[in-house]
C-alpha cells in the first residue's frame, strides 16, 4: 500500500494512512503496527514525521509504544467530542483539576527559580523551538482533534523542560505525576482553538521574562498562565 504525501499536513496525512493500514489489515487490539522504518519505506517520508505521527496516535490512545518491542494497536479512536461534552467533563472534574493546579503552581514557581539559576542559554532555545512549533500549529494544516493533541504534547514539553533544568529530582518526579493527572484536562482544553492561542501568548511571555533574567517577572507570568488556564475551564462551563 503506497501513500502520496502532500506538502501540507504531512503528519496528519501519515496518521490517516496509519488508520487506513489498521482497517485494511483488520488489526485487533494488541497487534503490532509497522515500524517507523517500514512506514518510511512504504510512504517515502522522513522518520521524524513518522515518529511525530505515532506520538500523536499514542496521545489519542489509538496505539501503545512498548520500549524494545515496538508499537501496538490499542483500540479504535473515539469520535471527536463537542464543546458541550467538554463543558460537562469540566463540571464533573473541576474540583480535582483545581487541586492539581494548586500543586502545579507551587512546583512550577520553584522550578523556574531554580532553572534560572542553574540553566544555560540552550534550554531557553529549546523553549523557543516549542513556541515556534505552536505558532506553526496555529497557522493551520491540522484537523481540530490533531491540533489539540499536538498542543497537549507541546504544552507538556514546555513545562517539563523548565522543571528538568531545575535538576531537582523531586520536583521532576512531582511534575511528571501532575502531568499524568492533568492529561485528560489538557486534551479537553486544547480541543478549543482559543485556548491554544492563549497558551501560546503565555508561553511567549514566560520566555521573554526568563530571557530578561527577572525571576519575579518569570514567576508572575507563570502565575498568570496557570490562572488563565483555570479561567478557560470556567468560561467553557459558563457558556455551555
TrEMBL record:
InterPro entries the UniProt entry points to: GntR_C (IPR011711), TF_FadR/GntR_C (IPR008920), Tscrpt_reg_HTH_GntR (IPR000524), WH-like_DNA-bd_sf (IPR036388), WH_DNA-bd_sf (IPR036390)
Keywords: DNA-binding, Transcription, Transcription regulation
Segment forming the signal sequence: none
Molecular function GO labels: DNA binding; DNA-binding transcription factor activity
Residue span, HTH gntR-type domain: 8-76
UniProt keyword Transcription regulation, yes or no: yes
Record Pfam families: FCD, GntR
The UniProt record lists the keyword Transcription regulation: yes
Name of the protein in question: HTH gntR-type domain-containing protein
Organism: Enterocloster bolteae 90B8
